[in-house]
Design goal:
CATH superfamily of the largest domain: Porin chaperone SurA, peptide-binding domain
Strand order of the largest sheet: 4-3-6-5
Number of domains: 2
Order of helices and strands: HHEEHHHHHHEHHEHEEHE
CATH class of the largest domain: Mainly Alpha
Number of helices: 12
Largest sheet: 4 strands, antiparallel
CATH topology of the largest domain: Triger factor/SurA peptide-binding fold
Structural class: alpha+beta
Strand content: 5-15%
Distance between the termini: 33 Å
Helix content: 40-55%
Number of strands: 7
CATH architecture of the largest domain: Orthogonal Bundle
Shape: elongated
Length: 311
């Protein structure tokens, strides 16, 4: 409700501008810019409305006028359908707004007066906003629903949207360098790694080679590092895997205290499970349907009305 107070208080600039125009002796020639059935919208009406939207990027007076026409059509529909706000309901709404803003009615009236507004002007705007909200609920929200079958179909047709970062699964043979290895020791480990790689290239079973020569915790698991997001892998491992096809093994490379030989087992792009994104999809579809239903309803109101846009 607080937003209603904020939106109404922005009318200050309009009132001050009108007062300044009168004081300077300038003459504003008003004219009709739109006819909606038996109602009119004047240029001054449009200017007041446009001033409320002056902070919006790329504001277009033509779009503002179309919005004003739509509201007049909706208020006419509300009247036909008996949708409205009683005086008691309006009084309750105003009381709630003042309470939320930490004011009593006297303070609220003073706040409005500082903005050049009367309580009656504020109530009129608030009544319209509540009426339009109720009309929207009756003709739009009540006619929109989304079932799980629709959500699943959307999910299947948009799997890329729910894809996670690519992952790689590799096995490794690791030959550790001794602490403070001498050049000759490092050369010996490198030569051993090259010999093991040659055996792998000649077709020897990679997992058997892991069990025979590999060191470290992964050796007992056949060297399997499991699935790793590319972005989370050690840079040297990710770079080596990037140049491999599935089933191929890399040349030995130095990384993390020893020589590694990796074989690329699998590359996958996991997708978030439907149940994890179901609520998100349902919300997206509901919003899309609501927007489409609203636009269709407005179009039908326009089709049944006499509208002249003279801007």
């Amino acid at each position: 409700m607080k937003k209603y107070l904020v939106s109404i208080l922005t009318l200050t600039g309009i009132l001050l501008s009108a007062m300044q125009g009168s004081a300077s002796g300038s003459v504003v020639v008003d004219r009709v810019v739109a006819v909606v059935n038996d109602e009119i919208i004047t240029l001054s009406d449009l200017q007041r409305e446009a001033a409320l939207k002056k902070s919006e990027a790329l504001r277009d007076d033509r779009l503002v006028l179309e919005d004003m026409i739509d509201r007049k059509l909706q208020m006419a529909a509300a009247k036909r359908e008996g949708v409205g706000v009683t005086d008691a309901e309006l009084a309750d709404a105003v009381a709630d707004i003042t309470k939320r803003n930490g004011m009593d009615m006297a303070q609220f009236g003073v706040a409005l007066a500082k903005e050049g507004l009367t309580l009656e002007q504020y109530k009129a705007e608030l009544r319209q906003q509540i009426t339009l909200s109720r009309l929207f609920n009756k003709f739009i929200r009540s006619n929109v629903s989304v079932d799980e079958a629709e959500a699943r179909a959307f999910y299947q047709n948009n799997l890329k949207t729910y894809s996670l970062p690519e992952e790689i699964r590799v096995r490794q043979i690791f030959l550790a360098l001794p602490d403070k290895a001498t050049p000759s020791q490092a050369a010996a480990i490198r030569d051993k790694a090259l010999a093991v790689h040659a055996r792998a290239q000649q077709g020897e079973d990679f997992i058997r080679l892991v069990h025979e020569v590999s060191q470290g915790a992964t050796a007992s698991q056949g060297g399997d590092l499991g699935f790793i997001r590319r972005e989370d892998a050690l840079p040297e491992i990710e770079e080596a895997a990037r140049n491999l096809k599935t089933g191929e093994s890399s040349s030995p490379f130095l990384c993390a205290g020893g020589y590694h030989i990796i074989r690329l087992e699998e590359v996958r792009t996991p997708v978030r499970p439907f149940e994890k994104v179901k609520d998100e999809i349902m919300k997206t579809l509901y919003e899309q349907k609501t927007e489409n239903t609203y636009r269709g309803w407005l179009q039908s109101l326009r089709g049944d009305s006499h509208i002249e846009n003279r801007l």
